[in-house]
Design brief:
Blueprint: H1 14-63, H2 70-97, E1 106-109, H3 110-127, E2 131-136, E3 142-145, H4 147-163, E4 170-181, E5 184-193, H5 215-220, H6 227-237, E6 241-247, E7 251-259
Helix pairs in contact: 1-2, 2-6, 3-4, 4-6
This protein binds adenosine-5'-diphosphate.
Main location: membrane
Protein name: histidine kinase
EC number: 2.7.13.3
């Protein structure tokens, strides 16, 4: 393509360095261009199915000369909601990937926040035949964070635990105060399930957009395939990171590391 330029470097002087820099920049531009192309292809692919379903339903209603049954309208509405969520997720994800995600960081008691989140999802877990518990070894764990963004992170991870754990399973959310890692102190939140687990060879791809371990099955569970990418990017924007430990058919542990008050390393914008 247009970016297939690579100037051979012969000299080791200033001139050689300029050429080397030029070659590095070309490579990086090419990678960015590839990523952009892949994103457009992925988005087109993801939008195609729901849009075709909606088109077909509307055409069927038109042909039968009816304005559409209430059930059909309900299903169409569900598809529209799903599409809207997908577009919204893509929007925040692209902002985060460009380092332009706005964070409204305030002092936040993570223990209290998680207690509330677990309370909110308890019903959904129980409806799926799952037991969910919250444990903390500290009364309060204070971080400087965007409560809304972090709520989305934990909701995404807990929703996954619910989705990928068969009936009768257990989910626990555990918070730990002050875990030392990479020379800094972090508050750690683990979401532990004893569900279907993830094969080891899939682990490196989990934060990729639209990545699903078993495409067909995940499709039925209603996710957008962006949940983990968003969680990864939002936590990164806070100066933290996520670790995954999983055993196929045994269960998974997703641990969120967040820099604790006064020691955060990430951007504050
Ligand atoms: P999705 O909308 O498909 O759930 P995510 O980005 O949230 O997308 O997750 C990506 C994939 O990672 C899922 O499709 C699933 O295969 C796998 N996964 C995520 N969380 C879990 C979990 N707790 N247990 C087993 N597999 C999981």
């Amino acid at each position: 393509g247009d970016l297939d330029v690579n100037v051979p470097v012969q000299s080791k002087d200033e001139y050689g360095k300029v050429i080397q820099t030029f070659n590095d920049m070309t490579l990086r531009l090419r990678e960015a261009e590839d990523a952009r192309r892949r994103l457009v292809a992925d988005v087109a692919h993801e939008l195609r199915t729901p849009l075709s379903i909606m088109q077909l339903k509307l055409e069927n209603a038109q042909q039968s000369g009816q304005s559409g049954s209430p059930e059909m309208l309900l299903r169409l509405h569900d598809e529209v909601i799903r599409l809207n969520l997908l577009v919204e997720d893509l929007h925040v994800l692209s902002l985060a990937e460009a380092g332009r995600l706005s964070l409204d960081r305030k002092t936040l008691d993570l223990t209290k926040k998680l207690e509330q989140i677990v309370d909110d999802v308890k019903m959904e877990a129980e409806e799926n035949g799952l037991d969910i518990r919250f444990t903390s070894n500290a009364r309060s764990v204070i971080v400087k964070a965007d409560a809304g963004r972090l709520t989305q992170v934990f909701i995404n991870l807990i929703t996954n635990a619910i989705r990928y754990t068969p009936k009768g399973g257990n989910i626990s959310v555990v918070i730990e105060d002050k875990v030392m890692d990479r020379d800094a102190n972090y508050a750690c939140v683990s979401i532990i399930d004893n569900g279907i687990g993830i094969p080891a060879e899939e682990l490196p791809h989990l934060f990729d957009r639209f990545y699903r371990v078993e495409k067909a099955r995940s499709r039925h569970t209603g996710g957008t395939g962006l949940g983990l990418s968003i969680a990864h990017q939002f936590v990164k924007a806070h100066g933290g990171f996520i670790r995954i430990a999983s055993q196929h058919e045994q269960g998974s542990v997703f641990t969120v590391y967040l820099p604790i008050e006064g020691e955060q390393t990430g951007s504050t914008s």
